[in-house]
Design brief:
It is built from 11 helices and 21 strands. By secondary structure, the chain is an alpha+beta fold. The strands form 5 sheets. Strands 1, 4, 5, 6, 8, 9, 10, 11 and 12 form a 9-stranded mixed β-sheet that branches. Strands 15-17-16-19-14-18 form a 6-stranded antiparallel β-sheet. The protein has a two-stranded antiparallel ribbon with strand order 2-3.
C-alpha cells in the first residue's frame, strides 16, 4: 500500500477502503454560507445557475459551473482556478490548519436527517472495495477532468454508502454546528470539523472495515481515476491525486431518503401500439378515474401515462426472469427496448415527467417506485450494478461546504 498522507495515527496498512482526513478549504466564518453554497453541477439548470451566480460574487457555482471571463480572456476552467486563488487571497476562503473529517448532517424540511462524514476516499480501479452502484450513461467526462486539472481541487463530494453496520453512531455531533447553511429547497446543512486523533482514527478504521458503494458521483469518481492515471503516467509519486473527496453515509433506511428517477418516452411512431408493447412485459390495469391532477412525490405504484389514459403496471414473471431483476428500472427498460426508434429521458419528480407529456414534448411518461435500501444492500453485497438512473438520493450534499485541495 502507498504511503498515507493524512494524520499518521490513522494510516492502516492493507486496510480497505482507504479513508483519510484532509485540511479543508472553507468559507470564512463571517460570511453567510447560505448565500455561498450551490447544488452539485449535474442537477443545476441554466436558470438556477444564473440565479445562484447573481446571489453572491463568491458563490460556489462560479467554480462548480464556471464560465469564460471575457475581460481577462481566461477560459472557463482557468477562470475557476483564478477565482479560487482570488478568494483565498482576499480571505473569502481559508485553509484549515489541521487535517479533519467533516461531520455533515442534512435535515429535511419534514425533520428527517441524513448523517455522514466528508473525508478523502482512496481511488481504486474496478474490482476493489469501492463499488459502483449503477451502470452509467455515457457522457462527456472531459468537462470535469479539465476542471480538476485547472483547479487541482475536489469542489464537490461524491456520495458513498458504507456497508459497515452501526457506522452512523460515530457521526453524532456535539454542540451547535460551527458552519450551517440553508439551501434553496429548505434543507439545513450543518458541518462539524473533527480533529481529535481518537475520533478521527475510529472513523477511518470503521469505514476501512467494509466496502463503500458509490451512490452518487460516478462520473466524478471516474474522472478522479483518470486524473490519478495521468499523474502516475507523468511520473508523480503518491499524493493527493490518489484520493477523492467523499461523503460517506451508512447504508441504512434511517439515514437515507431514496427517490425514483422517472422516465418519459420520445419518438414513438404515431401508429405504434404503445400500450400493447408494455403489456408484453406488464399486466396493465386502467387507473379508475384516470391519473390524479398531482402525483405524490413518492409513487406507490408503477404507472404508465399517455395522452389517452393511465395504467398501473405489474411486471410479469417471465419479464422479471428475462431482466434478471425485480427493479422497476430494469423491467421498464425491457419494455422500452421493444419500441422502435424511441428514446428515454429522465426526471427527478413525477410532476417534471408529466409536464413533458402535457406540453406535448413526450409520448408517454412512466412513473417508477423508489428502490428500497434492502435492494441496494442486496445488489451491493452481490457486487452487481443497478441499471442507469435507478436511484435518486435526496438531499444532495451542497457544493461549497468544504473544498479539498489536491496539493498546496
Amino acid at each position: 500500500m502507498e504511503p498515507c498522507h493524512g494524520t499518521p495515527a490513522v494510516c492502516y496498512a492493507g486496510a480497505m477502503p482507504r479513508f483519510e482526513p484532509f485540511s479543508g478549504l472553507r468559507y470564512a466564518p463571517g460570511l453567510d454560507l447560505s448565500q455561498l453554497i450551490c447544488p452539485p453541477y449535474d442537477v443545476v439548470s441554466p436558470e438556477e445557475r444564473e440565479k445562484l451566480a447573481a446571489s453572491h460574487p463568491a458563490n460556489a457555482i462560479h467554480v462548480e459551473l464556471p464560465v469564460e471571463d471575457g475581460e481577462s480572456g481566461l477560459d472557463r476552467y482557468a477562470n475557476a482556478a483564478s477565482l479560487l486563488d482570488r478568494w483565498r487571497a482576499d480571505g473569502s476562503l481559508v485553509l484549515d490548519e489541521a487535517p479533519a473529517f467533516y461531520l455533515l448532517r442534512m435535515t429535511h424540511p419534514d425533520g428527517r436527517s441524513t448523517r455522514g462524514v466528508i473525508g478523502a476516499l482512496g481511488c481504486e480501479p474496478p474490482g476493489g472495495d469501492v463499488l459502483p452502484h449503477e451502470e452509467t450513461i455515457p457522457k462527456d467526462k472531459s468537462d470535469r477532468l479539465d476542471l480538476l486539472r485547472a483547479c487541482r481541487a475536489n469542489l464537490s463530494p461524491i456520495w458513498g454508502l458504507s456497508l459497515a453496520s452501526g457506522l452512523a453512531e460515530l457521526f453524532d455531533a456535539e454542540g451547535p454546528a460551527p458552519a450551517t447553511a440553508l439551501d434553496g429547497s429548505g434543507v439545513l446543512h450543518e458541518l462539524w470539523p473533527i480533529t481529535s486523533r481518537e475520533r478521527v482514527g475510529a472513523i477511518a478504521s470503521a469505514v476501512a472495515d467494509s466496502p463503500v458503494v458509490i451512490a452518487d458521483g460516478h462520473h466524478r469518481y471516474e474522472t478522479a481515476l483518470a486524473y490519478q492515471a495521468e499523474q502516475r503516467s507523468a511520473g508523480a509519486g503518491a499524493g493527493g491525486h490518489d484520493l477523492v473527496m467523499a461523503l460517506v453515509v451508512e447504508l441504512s433506511a434511517d439515514e437515507l431518503s431514496v427517490r425514483a428517477i422517472h422516465r418519459t418516452l420520445h419518438g414513438v411512431p404515431a401508429d405504434f401500439d404503445l400500450l400493447g408493447a408494455f403489456e408484453e412485459v406488464f399486466e396493465a390495469t386502467p387507473l379508475p378515474g384516470g391519473l390524479p391532477a398531482r402525483m405524490p412525490e413518492v409513487p406507490k405504484e408503477l404507472v404508465l401515462v399517455t395522452t389517452t389514459g393511465a395504467w398501473s403496471l405489474a411486471p410479469r414473471a417471465a419479464a422479471l426472469e428475462e431482466a434478471r431483476s425485480d427493479l422497476d428500472s430494469s423491467v421498464v427498460a425491457l419494455a422500452a427496448a421493444g419500441i422502435p426508434g424511441a428514446s428515454t429521458r429522465h426526471h427527478h419528480t413525477p410532476d417534471e415527467a408529466l409536464a413533458e407529456l402535457r406540453a406535448g414534448r413526450a409520448d408517454a411518461a412512466v412513473l417508477l417506485r423508489p428502490v428500497t435500501v434492502d435492494q441496494i444492500a442486496a445488489w451491493a453485497h452481490e457486487r452487481r450494478r443497478m441499471p442507469p438512473k435507478s436511484t435518486y438520493f435526496h438531499p444532495k450534499p451542497a457544493t461549497g461546504l468544504v473544498f479539498r485541495l489536491l496539493g498546496d
